[in-house]
Input
Amino acid sequence: KVGLRVWVSSSLSLSLSLSLSLSLSLSLSIRYGLVWICTTLVFVLSSLGNCATYLVKKRTDSEAPWVFDVNYINLAASLIYGYAIIVPVAFYFSLRYMGSRADLLRFWCLWGYSLFIFVPTTLPLLIPVEFLRWVIILLAGGASSCFVALNLRSYLEASNDLTAVVAAAFGLQMVLSIFVKVWFFP
Output
């Protein structure tokens, strides 16, 4: 009996410590998503945005020289990191003011992961058909907006607060997607 109790207790403590360390490492790795997704998006926007301007330039005037625009990197980094840091902070303080149980770290993760859809979306934006580009970026912006809006609903208790906050989040995501299209994929 004693051997069985020792074996069960050691198995439970090993299982508990493994699950605790696994959940701790998972929660830490989830927090890195903000950094990795934003960094990938900055790289993809700056490189594929330059590629898109090259394709449009060669399509319209094949004799004109094309120049690589290094400022795309600065603009993409400022836009994406600024958006992913400042917007969640603003929503955090707004929701805390409204009496919600908002968590800033979760908001940073939420907005960071909402930007993921723009990473694969930038590849079809290389197609030099303007109508198709607008459809693609608006669909990506809509998906990203819905992701943020649906996840924000869990932080809102009153229905009157829900409409304004969700509409603001939806609108900001759509403005970001339109800015990405207009600036990086003209």
Notes: Residues 84 and 92 are 13 Å apart (CA to CA). The helical segments are 2-31, 33-60, 71-97, 104-114, 118-121, 130-152, 159-184. The chain is about 80% helix and 0% strand.
